[in-house]
User: What shape does this take?
Amino acid sequence: MPTKKSTTSSGKLTATLRIGHGDSVKEIELPMQSGTMGPDVIDVRQLYGKANVFTYDPAFMATASCESRITYIDGEKGVLLHRGYSIAELAKNGDFLEVCYLLINGELPNAEQKKKFVHDITHHTMLHDQVQYFFRGFRRDAHPMAVMVGVVGALSAFYHDETDYNEPHARMVATYRMIAKMPTIAAWAYKYSMGQPFVYPQNRFGFAENFMQMMFATPCEEYQVSPVVARAMDQILILHADHEQNASTSTVRLAGSSGANPFACIAAGIATLWGPAHGGANEAVIRMLKRIGSKDRIGEFITRAKDPNDTFRLMGFGHRVYKNFDPRATIMRKSAHDVLNEMGMGDNPLLPIAMELERIALEDDYFVQRKLYPNVDFYSGIILQAMGIPSRLFTAVFAVARTVGWMAQWNEMMDDPGRKIGRPRQIYTGHTQRAYVPVKRRA
Ligand code: SDX
Assistant: This one.
């Protein structure tokens, strides 16, 4: 039955739900809440108690799982704000560690705060020397995301349960450790797959520069990181830092709601991000562009993407929230040209295929009607590939960036005095109770 929005005599916003039909209609009044931006919410916490019914929203298409002050997306307008600052301004004027400070603390750091934060993160980039042995248990051809899940999960054994994460200081130490160590873990996953020795972090480098040198330096010669490439990597990290309650962030929040060790929660977030519908899409985009191979085959793939009986989808297109250009994709597209030109790869064959694919898709009714635009993953793979990063490592780079978002959201959840363990209900459509039948009497 329709729900009506109204205000009580005290001016409070309420929703009245009419349940039933004919003479047996029951009216349930539910409180509503307004945020600073975005849709109002109907608070359904009393619904089961008042009406003995649940709400049903399997993929959380219209369900707010929490209150947050960290990131805001306006999907219709293609707006992304971190603590009120637009992603375009942060990507243009800021750097990744400054955005990390903002996401965690709620404000941009002043010069002194920034200097201390950079120092503290830099001095947490090393791994306990025993951690290197976790890599050696994997085959050399193990997918880096499998390695990341395993090694990050193992960190929970290094900072163990006696740490009380209800203590804000313990949470901040875990936050610094996680942000600082992810580049080292991702770089070592790459080195291990290449059969090259691990390269240690160097405190003289910036965050993105350090990540690049740990990936590509060897003991044989000095390694110089191109400033353009380091800046492009820093910008990629900013663009992937946080994104409201996406699948991996929701996983970290749900795991954390039980009081689980934060490193184990981040391992669960990495596992979720790995999926091709989520952070694994950047690797899938490159595979797709290589499969298309040339502009004249684009039509064939567009047809397949539109065929409801074909599971093929255009990787890097579409988004649960953005029904306009993903602002991160817009920034990434420009950066792709800069990096390719810097790397002398302006003739990269995948870029013209990507540009033509985007042009065709944006004119095609199927995509226009469904508001399917390029998302953050569409161009990121082209830039990462131009930097010499193998496609199997793309999602690990996404995880390095998203760790600050996961930790900021985990802290916000742990800080909430009303925190409760997340435990969704269900609609049951299985058998009603039935008697056990001994095997001799079964058909
Ligand atoms: C990320 O949540 C986040 O914020 C995620 C992220 C972040 O920063 O954390 O932004 C990062 O994960 C970006 C998304 C990366 N994934 C991909 O690029 C994979 C390809 N995209 C699709 O799988 C899809 O668009 C999703 C998963 C991103 C969104 O799927 P939804 O919201 O569940 O939408 P849907 O699958 O219901 O699609 C609606 C319609 C369907 O057609 P109809 O049933 O209405 O006929 O659009 C179609 C879909 O078939 N559709 C596509 C398509 N994406 C959706 N058709 C062809 N190609 C596509 N890419």
In short: The chain has a mean pLDDT of 93. The chain has 18 helices and seven strands.
